[in-house]
Amino acid sequence: MLTHWETSFDTDTSLLGSRRLRCEQSLILIRRKTNKCLHCETILMRVSDEMDGTQAKKPRRAVKRVLIGLLVLALLGAGIVWVVQDRLFSQISPLSDAMPAEAGRPTIAPETDPNAVTVLLLGSDKRASGKIKGERSDTMMVARVAADRKSVSVISIPRDSWVEIPGHGKGKINSAFSLGGTALAVQTVENMSGVRIDHVAVVDWGGFKDLTDALGGITVKIPKTTYDPYRKKRWVAGTHKLDGEEALLYVRQRVGLPGGDLDRVKRHQNVIRELASKTLSAGTLSNPITVYRVLDSVTSNVEIDEGWRPGQMRSLAFSLRTLRNDDLYFATIPVSGTGMEGKQSVVRIDSAEAEKMWAAFKRDDVPGWISAHDRALDKTVR
User: Fold this and answer.
1) What is the DSSP letter of 168?
2) What is the C-alpha to C-alpha distance for residues 276 and 322, in angstroms, rounded to an integer?
3) Which of 16, 62, 239, 326 is the most buried (most CB within 10 A)?
4) pLDDT tens-digit map of 209-250
5) Are 205 and 118 in contact (CB under 8 A)?
6) For the chain, how many helices (H) and strands (E)?
7) Domain 97-376 superfamily per CATH
8) Is the pTM of the predicted complex or chain greater than 0.85?
9) CA-to-CA separations, 231 to 157, 213, 248, in angstroms, rounded
10) Among candidates 360, 285, 330, which has minimal Cα distance to 109?
């Protein structure tokens, strides 16, 4: 009986994987009769080892498949992101001859970190007529991204500011855009401030409308009832949630405001602050669809100088990903009052105070200047 089991087992080694149970049962029977089944024990140990190895390989293969799958998904995701970004940034229209000739432009001040980025922002309704020259800029702001990317400062210049326009004598600063396009607007601001402008962007007012709608509207507080006779719109004192069309009407009002152009500037600042706050909120940044709509509304309504490449803009935007609303600082250039020049109502700049403000701007210290000049930062939406 013993010899039969050993011989049978020896000749079936190629089928050990499928006959393990039979072999184990045979070994038990043999052990009851003898202790000499060493050959059978050795084979059983080898079978057990082979099966354990097969079982160990299965988890390793599964992990490998998962890792490969994740890698493929990551590559697909990166590809989709790249395509989306490329599409969005390709919507931005480049402006040729947007910057003035280099001769006579301000150099980078010694106290200025060259890594800071300064942009002249011009708000215009130019797209309604399809042209740049001949249109006056509705809004003029100088934005500066700090060298450490931890803050952004924005200085508003009232459109009626009475300044020297190179080659045209004295005039309202918004006329520089109509007389010589972005190049003359940049030159006028640089001559007035001593700040070198790195880039210029012309934003269509439609962009504010689209952005407001993409964010689900904005909330403003109106302290005093006003009436816009041109648009036949009455704004009642109180808190209001505005959609894009209403926000556009709101920031455009000029006539009927107690402070005229200065109150209009305050409206612009506070609406932009509200838009920035909602854009930088966790709810927006964690929602890919909202992020896409926001980027689409911005990139489809802006033109920039052709020297500002899409890759540079993407890098700058990415470097500002940790910014929050409290890192944005808004101020208005100091003014001494309003007056008349012929039949024109103008805003007069306080040159001495403005020089101090621009000096703080160059060294990324607008927050310090604001804290010393509370009147420059009015957080009440008018």
Assistant:
1) T
2) 13
3) 16
4) 999 999 999 999 888 899 999 899 999 999 999 999 999 999
5) no
6) 12, 15
7) LCP protein (3.40.630.190)
8) no
9) 24, 21, 11
10) 360
Residue with tokens 């009455």: 234
CB 188 within 8 Å of CB 178:
no
The stretch 246-271 carries a mean pLDDT of 88
Tokens standing for residue 243: 């959609």
CB 170 within 8 A of CB 117: no
The residues spanned by each domain of the chain are: 2-65, 97-376
Lookup: tokens for 214: 């993409």
Q: How far apart are CA 100 and CA 199, in angstroms?
A: 11
Q: How many CA atoms lie less than 13 Å away from 302 in the CB half-sphere?
A: 26
Task: Give the residue from 169, 349, 47, 68 showing the smallest Cα distance to 184.
Answer: 169
Is 271 strand, coil or helix? helix
pLDDT tens sequence across 334-368: 999 999 999 999 999 999 999 999 999 999 999 99
Q: How far apart are CA 176 and CA 286, in angstroms?
A: 41
